# Entry
Amino acid sequence: MFLTDRGKLWTVFVIVLALAILAPFASAYVILLVTQALILAILAMSLDILLGFTGLPSLGQAAYLGMGAYLTAILATRYDFGLGWSFWVVIVLGILIGAATAALFGLFAIRAAGVSFLMITLALGMCVWGLAYRWNSMTGGDNGINIPARPKFGIQLADGVTYYYLVLFFFVMSLAMLYVLIKSPFGRSLVGIRERELRMRILGYNTWLHKYIAFVIAGGFGGLAGVLWAHLNGIVSPQVVVLATSVDALLMVVLGGPGTLVGGAIGAAVVVFLRDYLSTVVPWWQYVLGGVYVLTILYLPGGLMGIPARIRRWREEQAGPGQEKKR
Amino acid sequence: MTQPIEQSGSSPVLELKGLSKSFGGLDAVQDVNLKVFPGDRRAIIGPNGAGKTTLFNLVTGVYPATSGQVLLFGRDITGWPSHRRTALGMARTFQVTSLFPKLTVLDNVLLAISGLRKMKFVMWRLLSSYRDLYDKAHLLLESVGYADRKHVEVRNLSHGEQRQIEIVLGLASDPKILLLDEPAAGLASGESREMAEFLKQLDPGLAILLIEHDMDVVFDVVDHITVLQFGKLVEEGTTAQIRHSPKVREIYLGTG
Amino acid sequence: MLHKLGGSCSWMVVMGCLALGVSVSRTSAAAEELRIGFVAPMTGGFAQVGKDMSNGFQMYLDEVGGSFAGAKVKFIVEDSEAKPPVAVRKAEKLVLQDKVHMLVGGLLASTGYALAPVSTRQKTVYIASVPSADDLTQRQSADYPYVIRTGWSSSQPSHPFGEWACQQGYKRIVTIGADFAFGYEVVGGFQRAFESCGGKVIQKIWPPLGTQDFGPYIPTLKKDADAIFTLMAGPMSLQFPKQLADAGIKKPVLGGGTSYDEFVLPSMGDEVHGHVSALQYSAALDTPKNAAFVKKYREKYGKVPSYYSESNYTTAQMIHEVFKKTGGKWPGAQKFIETLSKMKFDAVRGPVHFDDMRNPVQNVYIKKIERKKMFGYPNDELWNTVTKTYPNVSQFWNYGKTEFLKQPVYSRDYPPCKFCE
# Structure
């Protein structure tokens, strides 16, 4: 049950492998839901870098999702770009525009901490929403932009399973890169900043710069998720960049367990399942979702990922004192 | 101001020239001149509100000075941010324990060591692949007797131990001068003695500037004492001189 | 950090099982079943409109006993929450999971735009019974071969309304419309038609969607205008006429159809008396067919039907008539669209047929709000009395299709305000 680091990596590997192998046997709708969960997982994991690892509760993560998505839609509809091999260029551009937006926003946001950081990121996110809603000639305003078709380059992304594999690929890449990031010297410095920023400064870290870089990286992954999101839905509307999307991402992280990386992915899976599957079954799904959120925040501060630790602690208490335990 | 320092031949590690700080109308630190030489063990004492911690904050760059200069190895660092001072060889600890509570002792030390290295920006390589970093951390932990507890989360250590780790973190950057803000604060007397022993076994080449209220620790560890009152330097000398100074007795010791 | 990762294992497994369970519980298709996926907001601010929509459809279904020419109708309602991405996901659920033959519904223009590509991607019929975004059946029509509209296009009633305004002798009009695409299209259509018969729009104001307080806008309305043209949405429809009356402005007020439709009318007071609007339906339409519809609907659901209800009732009727032709068999998406778009219908709202871009050609009614008794109901109530009927109005009005499509879609800045001062 309680695995070593290596064991944990294996667990993730096995799950990813299962996701890859089982796909052709699942129904098209399940594939769609899992695809959606994987994209949101990328967004949630990018946010976890800020919230869980750096201690920056951003309420503007939807902005980068939106930038990536709008870029994809605008390039596809106005310039007919990104619907063939150039899709890969759009992926890169999506990451860059997410990162660039974060680089701009970071200049305002990183100075603040705690609630003011929350408020500033919220406000900046609203700016992007305003732009999407108001800049009619470019964004189609309230109606949004329809993307004529998913890209094809040898393979047809229009096929649900193919697109799922593409998204799975990006999910695994993101997970791997973010995993290395959090285990890297830079990633550890973020944890240090989360735990005690002043001390980090005294230790010789330019904490502003570290936070800023983390912010930009999170923006980049948000942009990536945006490109994938645009092609999943085939439509990009201001709804992508509304506050609710940012809040959702935040709740996914909190639900899964902040500071665990995969917690964001689990949170995304749970939210997608509750919202998109349960909502088609029962009309009171919103109460279930709300209840899950409240219970998690009240009783599971470590999120779903905190459950094993809870069980372990409970077991230790049961086992009584004097019980030696090897880590 | 006399300089009764025997190593006057070598150049000072730290020098304060007319250092002052006022908050609004309050002069927290006024015209303090001070020299600290390599290997010096110096305490700064004074009643509460004398400006000791403010002085530390000026020296370490937490607050900007209102006037005066801070020289580190002869370089004027008055306007420098904290992390650059650290890079040059200055380390400090806090009056309130300021560790990374949820990280292990080893992780705390690793963070401290990386602080001065360029690799702190590396994000494509696992930290665990930096053998030299780990070697240094283990060496440091061994030298201070924490090798066996390196995987304990800091929050699970006793208060006295946390105070010591606080100092270990300061040592991680290979400082030439260490500023300790009340290392024995809140410690039981047994723990204070341990702390004094801990301080005495540190590298003798290291200059230490110490704020401390526990006079047993002060007299045990340092050889020079500077006395502050109302932000002003009022007396300076060896421990013996200060112990017998009537002025100090009157303003400080006399009250205790 | 990753010490906690071990627990993810069990959760992932649970999720996986659930996912597989979903895939197993697929519905198997019976031969004579017609599955209709209905997408409308069932929660949130637009839930009541969504209810009106599904009620309309359901009422027709009940009338015919739940089957169309022998095909048993399975009517599956999904909540779009009035959010385009949610609508997309629900539509895909309906297509992939429930294997519906067609999608019906959508409310907001943005939802219509979101659902149309799904229909193309999934090669599934989408009947836009309410979404009125012009370009769905205009400039983007070719992208959506499986889309057919049974409601209206936003600017369709505005064109005859503009001409009507000229005939009333209005020379100078100010417009105040909610700041979103639907608003631009309704106001734009009106402006174009009004100006092509010699009128002048001298001021255009765009309060944001959801505005409650029109205090900052009302005083800026030009005093020398002959009339005010307004297009509001949601609660704005109620607030604006009230505040206009409170400000003592007595000018004639014209409005887009949704500003005064039967969904908002029962909540209004005498401040809207005499206001004139244009739409393809009025509950006060004095035909035997409509009288029967209104009475039946009111008896069943306790309120006067709005165009949302009528439109979906009529949509159900249209599907039924296609099935009468095909003998109760699903003809395939392409054939269904083809058949439907060539038929003529005698609907509650009047005669309806489709143009070659699959938008209805139908009557547009100029309606004046009056307090009176109707259909034998005992109380004086507000009704949208039809004062003039423009028959067979196409979405292109009398501009001609080619000529019309050369123009860009109506927007905040198009048509430009040539006469603004």
